[in-house]
Fold intramembrane prenyl-peptidase Rce1.
Amino acid sequence: MVPSGIANITCISFILIYIAGFYVFEHSRNNGLKLSRQHPTVIKSRMKAVASSCLVISVILCLILSCYVEKGPMQTIITLLGVKPILDPMALWCELVRPLLLTMILFLGPLSLLYFDQHLPGQNGFDWKRDGYQVLFSLHGVRNYVFAPLTEEYVFRSCMIAILSQANHSSAYLVFVTPLYFGLAHLHHGWEVYHQLGRTRQALQTAMMSSIFQFAYTTLFGWY
C-alpha cells in the first residue's frame, strides 16, 4: 500500500510537471506573453511540452507503484490505469453509451441551442466539411477535442486514481478529491490573464476572478 502522504504529494508533483512545460519552453510561455495561447506556435509548443510531461509522469508513476506492488507490477499498473479488456459486447456497449449519454446531459444547454439554430448534424445549418472536418482536424480542434482531453484524463484521472487507490482511499475520496487537483492545475491561467491585461490592479482582480471561476468549473467538471 502506498502511504497517503506520498500518494498526495505525488499528485501535486503531477500538477507541477504537467504545467511546467508551459513555462519551461520559450514558445510555450506565449513568447513572453506577446502571443496568445491560441497562436499556432504556442499551441504546437505546448502540445510537445505536455507530451513530454506525460512521459515523465508515467515514469514516476511506474517507479512509485513498482515499489509497492509485489506481483506482476507492470500488468497491475496497466490495470490500475483503467486499461482492461471488455469481452462482453453488452458490457462494452454500456461502457460506451453511458458516458456519452451523461455527457449529452451535461451539455444539454448548448445542444439545445444548436438544435434550435439548426446546427446539429443532419440539420439544414450543419455542414460536415465546415462544422465537422475543418473543426476537428484543425490545429485548435486537435488540441481541444483530442490532445487536451486525452492527456488530462490520463494524468488527472488515470494516473492520480491509480496511485490514490493504492493509498487505501475511499471511492468518495477518489471521486471528490481528485478533481480538486484538476482544478488547481488551471490556476496558472490567472498569471497569463494578469500579464496580458497590463499587470494593473484591475488586471489582478480580473485574473483572480477568472482563476476562481476556472477552479470551480473544472472541479465540478471533474466530479462529473
Observations:
- The CA atoms of residues 187 and 211 lie 5 Å apart.
- Residues 4-185 form one domain.
